[in-house]
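Lecture notes, part 5. Sequence design as translation. It can be helpful to think of inverse folding as translation between two languages: the language of shapes and the language of residues. The source text, in structure tokens, appears below.
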């Protein structure tokens, strides 16, 4: 009787291991998440700041209001641009 129980348990163990192994082979690796454009709008009295992410590693800052009148700053991979022109880094902290 003990031999029969041991044989049944070994068959169950082999069947379980084969099922687990085949399930692991069928599992597809998850796809990386896609970039989603985003935007935030901030307001201080008559000054408005629009922060936009249009692409990975690119953030655009648009200052609008009576004083600034449409100044656009963009950061692309740690490089700052003002209205499309590159800015010179004076110091980094």
């Amino acid at each position: 009787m003990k031999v029969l129980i041991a044989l049944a348990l070994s068959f169950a163990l082999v069947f379980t291991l084969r099922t687990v192994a085949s399930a692991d082979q069928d599992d597809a690796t998850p796809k990386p998440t896609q970039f989603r454009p985003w935007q935030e709008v901030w307001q201080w009295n008559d000054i408005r700041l629009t922060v936009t992410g249009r692409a990975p590693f690119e953030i655009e800052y648009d200052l609008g209001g009576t004083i600034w009148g449409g100044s656009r700053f963009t950061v692309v991979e740690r490089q700052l641009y003002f209205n499309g022109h590159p800015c010179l880094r004076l110091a980094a902290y």
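The translated text above is only one of many valid answers, since several sequences can fold into similar shapes. The helical segments are 2-26.
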